[in-house]
C-alpha cells in the first residue's frame, strides 16, 4: 500500500480523520518522524509538504480544539499540552527537524525546515490571541495568564533549537489582541453564559412540578377525590372532622392497597400517603383503628422495593392503563417512596428496619445535599437511634455504587435480604468512594447554614420541587472522615513498624481533598459542625506530626527501618508545609485571631479541639486556606512564592481582613495581572453572606476594584471578575443598600452599563446586577425613586449600541 503523502485520496482521508479526532494528531506525527531525517530527495520534500498540509488543515480548528480542551481537561497541565500540541512539533519530530535546520548539504532542505518553524510560530498566535480576548469559564481554578505560562513552559521541550525558542518566547511578551487573526476559525457551537444555565435549571424544576400535577390528574376519579378530601382535612382543624372524612380514614388501608396494586408507579400516590400517615399518627385527638404496619405490609406485597428504590429499572406488574414512567417520574418515584417509608419509620421504626437492612439504604445514598439523600440520611440516623451500633458495626463505612464492589445484593427477591460480603473494605476504600473533584467543589461551596443532624418527628417539607444538589452533605461526610481517621490511628498504634502505609494514607487524605473539606467545615454556622471539623484536622495534624518527627536520621541510629522512613518521606514532600499551614490556621482561629498574636512566635501545641476553642472562619478565609493547600503541590505555580512568603512572614492570618489583598492587588511584579486576578477570584468565589462583605469592606475591596475597572491595565478577564463579584454581592438586599450608600453603585453602573459593550456576556452580567438591585429595592415602597433610576439604567443597557464586537469574533461559527 502506498504512503498517505503519495496519494491525494489517502491524504484527504488522514486530514479529515485528524480534524475529527485531534487526540491522534501528535501520535500520527510521531509515526511519520522516522522518515523526516533530512535528505535531498523527492520523497522527503513530498513528506514535508504533506506535514505542511496537515498543519494548514487543522489551523482553522485550533480555537474549537481549545474550547473542547477547556471542557474536558481536569488540570492546567493537561490543558496546556492539549492546546500546544497543534502549534509545535511532536516529541519524535524534534530530532529530525533539528538536523534539518543544520543540514548544510542542501539549502532547500534547510529552508523547508525554517519555513515549517515559521509557520508553527504563526499557529501559536491563534490560541494565545483567543486566550487574550476571551474569559475562561468560572469553573476553572486558573486564569488565562497562568495557562499561557504553562504553555510557554511546555513548548520549551518541543523547540529543536535555542534560536527558535527565543522567537517563540517573544509571542508570550507581545500584546496579542487582534481579532482579525481569528476570523477564519471554525467553532461548532457558541458558549453558554451562566445566566442561561440557571434559566435551564429553572425549566427543569418547573418540569418536575408539572410532572406531579399531571400524575395526579392521571389517577382515577374516585382515588383523586379521596386524596383531595383528605388533603383539606390535613390542612384544616382535625377536631371537627365530618363523618365522610372519618369513613374515608377508616377505608384508607384499602385505598392504599389498591394504589400499590395498580398505580405504584405514580409518585403522587406516595406523596399524599406520607402526608396522611403523618396526620393520622401525630394527632392525639384522632383514634386510628389500624397500625401503620398495615401500609408497610401492603407495600411489600405489591411493590418490588429492590427494583424501585435501589435500581433504575421501571416497575413491573402494572395494570394495562397505567402510564409508562419516564426518567423524571422514576426520580420522583424514588424520592416520594423514601419519604413514605420515612413517615412509617417515625411511627413504627421496628417494622421498617426489620425488613430494610442499613446496607440497602447506604447503597441508594450518594451523600449529597439533594432532598432524596437527606431523606435517606434521616432514615439511617433513625436506624442508628433505634438500634445503636447498626451503622458503626462496620469498621469502614461504604456507600453508593461502591457498595456493590464489596457486597452482593439480591435484587431478584422482593425481600430485602442482608447482602453477602464479597470483599472486606479497608482504610483505602475511602479514596475509592469519594470523587476528589466533587469533594473540592463541595468544599468551595460548603453549605454554611446546614445544621448538625437532629432527629425530629416532624413532617418533611411538603414541597413539590425535588431538589437536586451535587454538594456533599457535611453531616455524613465529616462523620465518615472522622471514623476513617480514627480507624487508621488505631491501626498505626497496633503496628508501629509499618511506616509506608501512613505516608500513603496521609498523602491520599490530602490529595483527595479530604483535608480541604475539613477546613471548609470551619466556616459552618453550626457549632457542632465546626467542632467535628476541628477534631478531624487535629487528628490529621497529630498523625502528620508523628510522621514528620520520624524523618530525622543520624549516623548512629540509621538502619533499614530509617531508610524506609526516608523513602516514604520522599513520596510526601508537602507534609511539613501542610503542617505549617495548619498551625497558621490554628493560630488564626485562636482567641483574638491574628490581631492579638501580632508578630509573636508560633504556638507549640497542635490544632486540636481539646485546646482550641476558637470561632468561625468566614467563607473567604476558608477558601483562602483551601487554595493555599492546593498550591502546595504546585511549586511551579506563580502564586506559590507570594502566598508562601505571606505565610512565612507572620504566625497567623488576621481574620478581620481579606488575606494579602492590598499586596496582591497592587503587586509590583512583572506578572501582576496573575496575582491581581487570583485575589479577585478569591473574593468572587467567597462572597456568600454579609459576613464576607464586612471582611471585604475592611480591606476596601469594592473601593479598589470599582476604581480599577476603567484603568488601562484592566483586561477583559479582570472586568468579568468584577462583574461576577457584583452579581454575587447584589443577591443580598443588605449588601445592595450598603453598595448604594457607601459606593454609589448606581452612578458607577450608569457610567459603565450604558457605555458601548462589546461582549454579549458582559451585557448579561450588567443586566443581572441591575435585576438583583431592582429585586432588593422592591421590598419597600419607599425606594420607588431609586427604582426609577435603576429601571432607566436597565433600559439603557438593554439597548444594543452600534459597536464592533471584537471579542465575540472567535466564537462566531463559520458557515463552512
From TrEMBL:
Domain URB1 C-terminal, first and last residues per copy: 516-748
The protein, known as: URB1 C-terminal domain-containing protein
GO biological process: maturation of 5.8S rRNA from tricistronic rRNA transcript (SSU-rRNA, 5.8S rRNA, LSU-rRNA); maturation of LSU-rRNA from tricistronic rRNA transcript (SSU-rRNA, 5.8S rRNA, LSU-rRNA)
Stored Pfam families: NopRA1 (PF16201)
GO CC field: nucleolus
InterPro entries in the record: URB1, URB1_C
Amino acid at each position: 500500500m502506498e504512503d498517505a503523502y503519495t496519494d491525494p485520496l489517502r491524504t484527504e482521508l488522514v486530514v479529515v480523520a485528524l480534524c475529527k479526532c485531534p487526540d491522534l494528531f501528535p501520535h500520527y506525527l510521531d509515526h511519520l518522524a522516522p522518515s523526516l531525517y533530512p535528505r535531498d530527495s523527492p520523497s522527503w520534500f513530498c513528506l514535508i509538504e504533506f506535514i505542511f498540509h496537515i498543519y494548514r488543515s487543522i489551523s482553522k480548528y485550533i480555537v474549537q480544539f481549545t474550547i473542547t480542551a477547556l471542557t474536558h481537561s481536569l488540570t492546567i497541565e493537561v490543558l496546556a499540552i492539549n492546546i500546544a500540541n497543534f502549534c509545535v512539533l511532536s516529541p519524535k519530530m524534534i530530532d529530525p527537524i533539528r538536523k534539518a535546520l543544520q543540514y548544510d548539504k542542501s539549502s532547500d532542505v534547510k529552508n523547508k525546515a525554517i519555513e515549517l518553524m515559521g509557520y508553527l510560530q504563526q499557529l501559536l498566535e491563534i490560541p494565545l490571541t483567543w486566550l487574550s480576548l476571551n474569559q475562561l469559564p468560572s469553573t476553572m481554578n486558573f486564569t488565562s495568564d497562568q495557562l499561557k505560562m504553562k504553555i510557554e513552559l511546555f513548548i520549551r521541550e518541543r523547540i529543536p533549537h535555542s534560536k527558535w525558542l527565543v522567537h517563540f518566547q517573544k509571542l508570550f511578551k507581545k500584546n496579542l489582541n487582534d481579532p482579525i487573526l481569528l476570523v477564519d476559525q471554525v467553532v461548532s457551537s457558541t458558549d453558554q453564559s451562566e445566566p442561561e444555565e440557571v434559566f435551564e435549571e429553572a425549566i427543569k424544576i418547573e418540569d418536575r412540578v408539572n410532572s406531579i400535577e399531571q400524575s395526579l390528574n392521571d389517577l382515577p376519579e374516585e382515588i383523586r377525590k379521596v386524596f383531595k378530601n383528605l388533603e383539606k382535612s390535613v390542612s384544616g382543624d382535625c377536631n371537627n372532622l365530618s363523618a365522610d372524612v372519618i369513613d374515608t380514614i377508616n377505608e384508607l388501608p384499602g385505598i392504599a392497597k389498591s394504589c400499590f396494586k395498580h398505580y405504584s408507579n405514580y409518585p403522587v400516590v406516595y406523596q399524599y400517603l406520607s402526608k396522611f400517615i403523618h396526620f393520622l399518627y401525630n394527632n392525639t385527638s384522632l383514634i386510628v383503628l389500624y397500625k401503620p404496619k398495615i401500609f408497610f405490609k401492603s407495600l411489600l406485597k405489591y411493590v418490588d422495593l429492590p427494583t424501585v428504590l435501589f435500581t433504575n429499572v421501571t416497575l413491573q406488574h402494572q395494570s394495562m392503563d397505567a402510564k409508562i414512567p419516564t426518567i423524571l417520574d422514576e426520580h420522583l418515584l424514588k424520592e416520594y417512596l423514601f419519604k413514605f417509608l420515612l413517615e412509617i419509620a417515625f411511627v413504627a421504626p421496628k417494622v421498617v428496619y426489620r425488613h430494610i437492612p442499613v446496607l440497602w439504604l447506604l447503597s441508594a445514598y450518594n451523600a449529597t445535599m439533594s432532598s432524596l439523600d437527606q431523606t435517606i440520611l434521616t432514615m439511617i440516623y433513625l436506624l442508628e437511634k433505634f438500634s445503636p451500633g447498626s451503622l458503626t458495626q462496620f469498621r469502614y463505612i461504604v456507600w453508593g455504587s461502591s457498595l456493590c464492589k464489596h457486597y452482593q445484593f439480591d435484587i431478584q427477591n422482593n425481600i430485602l435480604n442482608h447482602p453477602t460480603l464479597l470483599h472486606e473494605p479497608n482504610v483505602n476504600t475511602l479514596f475509592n468512594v469519594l470523587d476528589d473533584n466533587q469533594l473540592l467543589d463541595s468544599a468551595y461551596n460548603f453549605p454554611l447554614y446546614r445544621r448538625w443532624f437532629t432527629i425530629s418527628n416532624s413532617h418533611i417539607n411538603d414541597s413539590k420541587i425535588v431538589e437536586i444538589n451535587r454538594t456533599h452533605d457535611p453531616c455524613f461526610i465529616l462523620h465518615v472522615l472522622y471514623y476513617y481517621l480514627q480507624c487508621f490511628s488505631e491501626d498505626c498504634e497496633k503496628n508501629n513498624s509499618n511506616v509506608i502505609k501512613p505516608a500513603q494514607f496521609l498523602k491520599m487524605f490530602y490529595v483527595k481533598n479530604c483535608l480541604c473539606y475539613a477546613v471548609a467545615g470551619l466556616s459552618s454556622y453550626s457549632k457542632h459542625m465546626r467542632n467535628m471539623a476541628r477534631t478531624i484536622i487535629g487528628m490529621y495534624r497529630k498523625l502528620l506530626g508523628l510522621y514528620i518527627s520520624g524523618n530525622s536520621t543520624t549516623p548512629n541510629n540509621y538502619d533499614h527501618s530509617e531508610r524506609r522512613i526516608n523513602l516514604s518521606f520522599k513520596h510526601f514532600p508537602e507534609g511539613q508545609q501542610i503542617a505549617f499551614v495548619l498551625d497558621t490556621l490554628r493560630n488564626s482561629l485562636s482567641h483574638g485571631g491574628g490581631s492579638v498574636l501580632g508578630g509573636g512566635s508560633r504556638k507549640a501545641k497542635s490544632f486540636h479541639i481539646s485546646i482550641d476553642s476558637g470561632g468561625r472562619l468566614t467563607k473567604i478565609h476558608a477558601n483562602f486556606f483551601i487554595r493555599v493547600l492546593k498550591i502546595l503541590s504546585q511549586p511551579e505555580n506563580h502564586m506559590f512564592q507570594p502566598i508562601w512568603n505571606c505565610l512565612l512572614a507572620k504566625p497567623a492570618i488576621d481574620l478581620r481582613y481579606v488575606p494579602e489583598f492590598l499586596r496582591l492587588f497592587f503587586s509590583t511584579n512583572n506578572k501582576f495581572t496573575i496575582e491581581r486576578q487570583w485575589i479577585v477570584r478569591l473574593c468572587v468565589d467567597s462572597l456568600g453572606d454579609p459576613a464576607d462583605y464586612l471582611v471585604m469592606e475592611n480591606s476596601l475591596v469594592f473601593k479598589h476594584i470599582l476604581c480599577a475597572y476603567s484603568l488601562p491595565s484592566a483586561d477583559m478577564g479582570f472586568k468579568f471578575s468584577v462583574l461576577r463579584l457584583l452579581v454575587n454581592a447584589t443577591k443580598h438586599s443588605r449588601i445592595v443598600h450598603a453598595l448604594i450608600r457607601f459606593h454609589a453603585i448606581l452612578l458607577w453602573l450608569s457610567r459603565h452599563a450604558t457605555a458601548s459593550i462589546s461582549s454579549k456576556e458582559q451585557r448579561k452580567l450588567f443586566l443581572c446586577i441591575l435585576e438583583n438591585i431592582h429585586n432588593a429595592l422592591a421590598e419597600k415602597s419607599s425606594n420607588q425613586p431609586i427604582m426609577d433610576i435603576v429601571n432607566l439604567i436597565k433600559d439603557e443597557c438593554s439597548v444594543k449600541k452600534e459597536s464592533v464586537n471584537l471579542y465575540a469574533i472567535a466564537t462566531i461559527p463559520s458557515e463552512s
